[in-house]
From TrEMBL, chain A:
It is a multi-pass membrane protein. The keyword Transit peptide does not apply. InterPro entries: ABC_transporter_permease, MetI-like, MetI-like_sf. One of its GO terms (cellular component) is plasma membrane. This is Sugar ABC transporter permease. Pfam families: BPD_transp_1. The chain crosses the membrane at residues 35-58, 119-140, 198-220, 241-260, 305-327. It is found in: Cell membrane.
UniProtKB/TrEMBL annotation, chain C:
It comes from Amnibacterium setariae. The keyword Cell inner membrane does not apply. It comes from the Bacteria. It is found in: Cell membrane. This is Carbohydrate ABC transporter permease. One of its GO terms (cellular component) is plasma membrane.
Length: 345, 426, 305
């Protein structure tokens, strides 16, 4: 499995005067082993993700190629400082007469709407997916006859390729589609301000809740049945068991699941792109930050798109940072916490 | 595992070596290629021809026909994705890398200017000059940038009017939007919507907006690509659509229509008039859910009630091709009458030569051809610009907001003008 | 019927020795009878929620392309045509794409798990400087808009002459799977009873052996879940594959994305939905088999308790 042989961690009894030197050697060995174990991960991530990110950040300070009015051909833009960032954050567009406020219809003008949409979708979908996912996981973890069937069914939405899911919901939410036919209504899901947002939330929740449920289920399976047994002996109700045993013990798995869902949702692209094309309302009711990035790349303004990608990255980074600070202080390292169950008496 | 690690290490070294190159290749300062009067012998050889997904499975037939005549300069087709966005992205990525594996590329008519201004296309001048006297003039215009031809039209397209002949009765077929909207009472009495085009927020909205403006006698941009939307004609164009939405003459659902949902609504009897591309004809006449299957006489087709936008594709020669001579021969071959006819018969692709439309046998087999020619004679290209995508985005966003009623027509046109100007400024 | 046998089941199956325990079991059975009805109802709700849209996909696949918009619960003129069309090698190459997706998915899953388990083990178990930084960096990779990685990766792989190669998909997919793999496994490993591993070491196992024999079986549910997520993540990827694959290496998502109707602009809803069913059903069956055989086997060999 691995070529290196990791040594056992130092145990307290090793700490003697004579052992200190060997302890030091041991620690160096552990560090070496650790990096050997981590090397493949670091290398792959650096090449496939690190390199493009660094390149994008560098490019974001370059102006995009400009048309030379004399020849009619494009010439390179050159260094431009923070102009690309101002284009998005301050909606500044450069015109022959200097900078001006971007007009509606220029992508720069959609930045704050897109930011709002992105956060709106993220908060609602992640909240829904967490609650429903938790419920699904708890049911899936129970012992009953059709558990296999249930687990297979839950996997279905997640296993259908996103491209197909998006087309499926486009079809379901079409004006002449099954939803309107079933409910006997004429809602225009593809264009109405709130209906279009709602359609995307439904589609995303349906599609990704299983991801949440599976991760939470794995967490649930690690909670020993004995813990519940003991709690029941002590007369804890089901509700008490949930809040005092399940949730605290589930926290590590739950935090990771919610964290990754949040990061994914903040970069949402396929569903709104296919369902509404980012339209609805005044024309950008379902435009997310990632949709803006793609549109800007299609406008061949790749450096400006790189700036927007970097801004998105910083926003997501900020959210993740806060998230870890608030919810998962001890996620990355340190000593293993003891498995204490809080407050079951 | 050790082996894998060594391989990874080797990979990283390779990648880091490539880093410098990658950082440089984003600059695009190419100038048009030479225009000497003869083409060197070395410019002839096998070529790769790139185009979007082949709907009709017809590419192997084209290849066989060409290869039979040119055994030493065989053509290989490369099929791209079915989606226009991805086709363009694929072209741009290959050109940016200056790859030589694409010799002839199919460009949507609205991309030609963009690709030409990036210096990716061989200008068709000097030894590369083509005889284009047979090509419909408006169609030829889509292949030019700043007066220079950069591509050869391969197929064209124009919207036509599909209507309910059984509802219209003896009344004359409308020739303008105004005439059409005056007939809306008939639609109402049948419980159907009156008219629709494509108004979802996508490229089709640019097509439909331009049609409305052009039909009202306005223009979207001038020859230099500057917006010309501050005219009464342009205002009238957009106003017509906005009013029709408000009155319900265009049904509310049309704001989500791309070509297909609109066709489906028309076939289901929910629309009296529908403007769409000619591809719809065979589907509407044969579809099981279509009124025209039960009653073929109920379907009427006519020229676009005004000025349609032009669709279609052009062939262009890559600046980086090693066999431009053969590529040029391919362009000539494709524009020949024989191949253009073959295209109609086998790939439903509308010919670019006027003469083909006069072929009586062909018109019998494809009844929409004369109608299409009517539309083509009045058709106008979409606003040409090296920044076409950004211009189109500016149009889509503002036209959409106006149609949704969340922005006044005046405000929408003002914003659109400014955004079109800013598209080329940033 | 039970599928994943985790430590939970192992505990539940322990023989009951004393009377108190026996009465406890009886009480639990009584409770279980009442709650199993409630569980059943909730399970049914979940199944309906998950399968209704999927049903619409399946049934749309049986409609003819010209009646695809009808809203009847069963197709009025059912046809198998779409399924046949989806596999028509002259047009859609779905068969080859299925093999590609499957092969790529398996490789990505196996490699990402081996690499990810090593990394997660190191981070959860060993003390070394720079741990937080590495976890942060790995997470940071999931923060950049994926669409913006396309162009740099394309130029990178072009210079390596890797366009249309399998590795140009496999390696980025591994990178895509690693953050979740490392973070999930790390969070689970940290909850493991490592005293048991130490005990095994005292019994003469090497660290690797101790990990494999003691910890891995206990972590099986987590590893298995991570494997499913990695596999489906790679199975579902579209953007990168649409840019970097060719007709030989294209994946299921690209093949389906390239479906065309008989006419340009005609959206091939029916074939797309048929293909959606065709690629999803075997995947579910595979996961079920995998779950039952392999995970059950792994867990059975593990230390109980």
């Amino acid at each position: 499995m691995t070529t290196a042989t990791p040594p056992a961690p130092p145990r307290p009894k090793d700490v003697t005067e004579a052992g200190r030197a060997s302890l030091e050697a041991n620690r160096r060995r552990i560090t070496r082993t650790s990096y050997a174990l981590l090397a493949p991960t670091i290398v792959v991530m650096a090449v496939i993700v690190g390199y493009p990110i660094v390149l994008s950040v560098i490019n974001s300070f370059q102006a995009d190629a400009r048309l030379d009015p004399a020849t009619g051909f494009f010439v390179t833009g050159g260094f431009t400082g923070l102009t690309n960032y101002a284009h998005w954050l301050l909606q500044q567009c450069s015109t022959p007469a200097g900078t001006a406020a971007c007009a509606q219809g220029n992508l720069g003008a959609s930045f704050w709407t897109a930011t709002f949409n992105t956060f709106f979708f993220t908060v609602i979908t992640v909240a829904l997916e967490t609650v429903i996912g938790l419920w699904m996981a708890i049911i899936m973890n129970r012992n009953f006859r059709f558990r296999g069937l249930l687990r297979a069914a839950v996997l279905v939405p997640w296993a259908i390729p996103t491209a197909v899911t998006a087309k499926l919901f486009l079809f379901i939410f079409a004006t002449a589609g099954i939803i309107n036919a079933l409910l006997g209504i004429e809602v225009i899901w593809g264009a109405d301000l709130w209906a279009s947002r709602f359609a995307i939330i439904i589609a995303d929740t349906w599609k990704t809740t299983p991801f949440m449920a599976l991760l939470i289920l794995a967490g649930l399976q690690l909670i020993p049945e004995d813990t519940y047994e003991a709690a029941r002996m002590d007369g804890a109700t089901t509700v008490q068991q949930f809040f005092r045993i399940t949730l605290p013990l589930l926290r590590p798995a739950l935090v990771v699941a919610v964290l990754f869902r949040t990061l994914d949702a903040l970069r949402m692209y396929d569903l709104p792109a296919i369902l509404t094309g980012g339209g609805g309302g005044r024309g950008d009711a379902t435009t997310t930050l990632s949709i803006l990035v793609v549109r800007e790349i299609q406008n061949t303004a790749v450096n400006s798109a790189a700036a927007l990608s970097t801004i998105t990255f910083l926003i997501v980074f900020g959210v993740a940072f806060l998230f870890i600070r608030v919810l998962g202080a001890n996620l990355t390292g340190g000593e293993k916490k003891s498995k204490k169950v809080a407050g079951v008496r | 595992m050790k082996k894998a690690m060594r391989a990874t290490a080797a990979t990283v070294t390779l990648l880091l070596g490539g880093l410098g190159l990658a950082a440089c290749s984003s600059s695009t300062t190419t100038t048009p290629g030479g225009t000497s009067s003869t083409i060197a012998k070395s410019e002839y050889g096998p070529i790769t021809v790139v185009q979007g997904k082949d709907n009709n499975g017809v590419l192997p037939k084209y290849a066989a026909m060409w290869n039979e005549k040119h055994p030493d300069q065989k053509v290989t087709y490369k099929e791209q994705s079915d989606q226009a966005d991805q086709q363009l992205q694929d072209l741009l990525q290959n050109f940016q890398q200056k790859l030589t594996d694409y010799d002839v590329v199919s460009t949507d008519v609205v991309w030609t200017q963009q690709l030409a201004s990036q210096g990716y296309l061989q200008p068709l001048t000097g030894a590369y000059k083509l005889d284009e006297s047979g090509v419909i003039p408006a169609v030829l215009n889509t292949a030019k940038y700043r007066g220079i031809q950069y591509a050869a039209p391969s197929s064209t397209d124009s919207q036509i009017l599909y209507y309910r002949k059984d509802w219209l009765g003896d009344r004359p077929v409308p020739k303008t939007y105004e005439e059409m909207f005056k007939l809306c009472d008939i639609a109402k009495s049948k419980g159907a919507g009156c008219y629709s085009g494509q108004y979802a927020k996508y490229e089709g909205l640019t097509v439909n907006f331009s049609e409305a403006v052009n039909s009202a006698g306005g223009t979207v941009v001038n020859d230099k690509g500057e917006p010309t939307l501050d005219t009464p004609e342009a205002k009238q164009g957009l106003q017509t659509l906005v009013d029709a939405f408000k009155d319900g003459d265009i049904p509310k659902a049309a704001i989500t229509y791309q070509e297909e949902p609109g066709r489906q609504a028309f076939e289901a009897g929910k629309l009296m008039f529908y403007t769409n591309w000619p591809y719809q004809y065979s589907l509407t006449t044969t579809g099981d859910q279509s009124f025209a299957k039960k009653n073929p006489d109920a379907l009427g087709i006519a020229g676009f009630p005004g000025k349609s936008s032009l669709g279609g594709h052009n062939w262009a020669i890559s600046q980086f091709s090693k066999h431009k001579g053969t590529a040029l021969e391919f362009l000539k071959w494709y524009q020949s009458e024989e191949i253009q006819k073959f295209g109609v018969e086998n790939a439903s692709s509308a010919p670019v030569l006027s003469s083909v439309y006069e072929d009586q046998d062909l018109a019998k087999k494809f009844p929409y051809l004369p109608t299409l020619k009517d539309s083509l004679d009045n058709a106008v290209p979409r606003p040409g610009s090296p920044y076409y995508q950004a211009v189109s985005t500016a149009i889509q966003n503002n036209a959409y907001a106006a149609l949704q009623g969340s922005k006044s027509v005046d405000q929408a046109l003002t914003d659109m003008s400014t955004a079109i100007k800013q598209a080329s400024g940033s | 019927m039970t599928t994943v046998a985790g430590p939970t089941t192992a505990a539940a199956e322990r023989p009951v020795f004393d009377d108190r325990a026996a009465s406890r079991v009886r009480a639990r059975r009584r409770r279980a009878a009442g709650s199993s009805v409630r569980t059943g109802i909730q399970a049914a709700l979940i199944v309906i929620w998950c399968l209704l849209p999927a049903y619409w996909m399946l049934i749309t696949g049986f409609r003819r392309s010209d009646t695809v918009y009808e809203t009847t619960l069963l197709p009025t003129t059912p046809t198998f045509d779409n399924f046949i069309q989806a596999f028509n090698p002259a047009r859609n190459q779905l068969g080859r794409a299925l093999l590609n997706s499957f092969g790529i998915g398996v490789l990505v899953t196996v490699i990402a798990l081996v690499v990810g388990v090593s990394a997660a083990y190191a981070i959860a178990r060993l003390n070394f400087p720079g741990k937080g930084l590495i976890m942060g960096a790995v997470l940071g990779a999931s923060m950049f808009p994926g669409v913006a990685l396309l162009t740099p990766l394309f130029s990178l792989f072009t210079q390596l002459n890797w366009q249309g190669s399998y590795q140009s998909l496999i390696i980025p997919y591994i990178a895509g799977a690693l953050p979740l793999t490392v973070w999930t496994l790390n969070s689970f490993f940290r909850e493991m009873p490592w005293e048991l591993e130490e005990a095994a070491r005292i019994d003469g196992c090497t660290a690797a052996q101790a990990f494999r024999i003691v910890i891995l079986p206990l972590a099986a549910p987590a590893v298995f879940t991570t494997a499913i997520l990695a596999f489906i993540g790679s199975w579902n990827e579209y953007l990168l594959a649409s840019v970097l694959s060719n007709t030989q290496t294209q994946t299921v998502t690209v093949a389906i994305g390239n479906f065309v109707g008989s006419q340009p602009r005609e959206i091939p809803y029916a074939t797309t939905m048929a293909a959606g069913s065709v690629v999803t059903i075997p995947l579910i069956i595979l996961v079920l088999i995998f779950q039952r055989r392999i995970v059950a086997g792994l867990t059975a060999g593990g230390v109980k308790g």
